[in-house]
Amino acid sequence: MDVKIFAENLTFPEGSRWKDDRLICSDVFSHQVISFNEDGNKEVVASIEGLPVGLGWNKNGDLLINSLMEKKVLKSDSSGISTYADIGKVEDNFINDMTTDSLGRAYVGTVSLTSFDENEHIGPTNIPTFGSIMLVDVDGSIRRVADRMTFTNGMVISPDGKTLIAAETFAYRLSMFDIEDDGSLSNRRIFADLGAPTDGITMDIKGRVWVALPYYKFGGPGGWVRVEEGGEISAKIDSSTHGAFDCVLGGKNMDQLFLLEAAILGQERIPGDGRIRVTNVDCPGF
User: Fold this and answer.
1) Sheet hosting strand 52-57, strand order edge to edge
2) C-alpha angle with apex 21: 15 to 25, nearest 5 degrees?
3) Which of 64, 155, 211, 284 has a CA that sits 20 to 30 A from residue 257's CA?
4) DSSP 123
């Protein structure tokens, strides 16, 4: 695959989405949500005091921003930034990635960052505690719809709205759920075991998932794989120099794969280390 630089001089790009002909993502440690047109021209969409991560949209089309350590889903609209849902009132963990469905319901992943150190090798003396998936319904109510998640990360909903797939980073897998009419999640099962930590994900029209793997071996670079249900890998892109933290399908024909990367996990994160690359793929997103 021909992989090209799309944007540079970022810190830690995450939470990417493609909407209205633009790539939008969080640059976490710059405290900004940013967007790019197809030529890579950057615009600051929102700035917050906390650490922005997962992004989505409510039923009115307002941008939703997960503020990690505040444990709040924020809303950005013409009047500014406000609290949309206070996850911290019902969940002790921090909040991470998010996906929203066609009704504007928000699925918010939670993670523990106090029980272990993600910058150290995971093992018997450094074990992540469980997180969850919280649902923020259109009426503003909050409830837990999945528990015992091993560091909930990227999430995606299938085109028919019936299935949610979530990365469990330090279980090295993708898990999948059926979505009930009321938004509840059921029938939990494994989509794929990958043998490496899983982060941001995006789905193509054939139901295959591109997943960012921060590293193949701790202390080294990672890459991105396209995985079929059951675990077969049908495409692979190596980073070689960076950690791979997210990806999203977008572009005019939805056949461009944007690759978000930053400093290798365990190394100091310095402004300018983060970047986004792009490549064309043979199966588009939706």
Assistant:
1) 52-57, 63-67, 72-77, 80-86
2) 15
3) 64
4) B
List all residues 6 or more positions away from 210 whose beta carbon is below 8 Å from its beta carbon. 201, 202, 203, 204, 224, 225, 226, 227, 235, 247, 249, 257
**Which position has the token pair 């056949």?**
255
Query: 89 — phi, psi (to 5°)?
Result: -75, -20
- Band (pLDDT 50/70/90 cuts) for residue 192 is very high
Mean pLDDT of the chain: 96
Contact residues for 124 (Cβ-Cβ < 8 A; gap 6+): none
Dmax (CA) of the chain: 48
Q: Give per-residue pLDDT as tens, 5-31.
A: 999 999 999 999 999 999 999 999 999
Predicted TM-score (pTM) above 0.90: yes
Q: Which residues contact 96 (CB under 8 A, 6 or more apart)?
A: 53, 54, 66, 68, 108, 109, 110, 111, 131, 151, 152, 153
Q: Is 97 helix (H, G, I), strand (E, B) or coil?
A: strand
Strands 243-250 and 233-238: unpaired
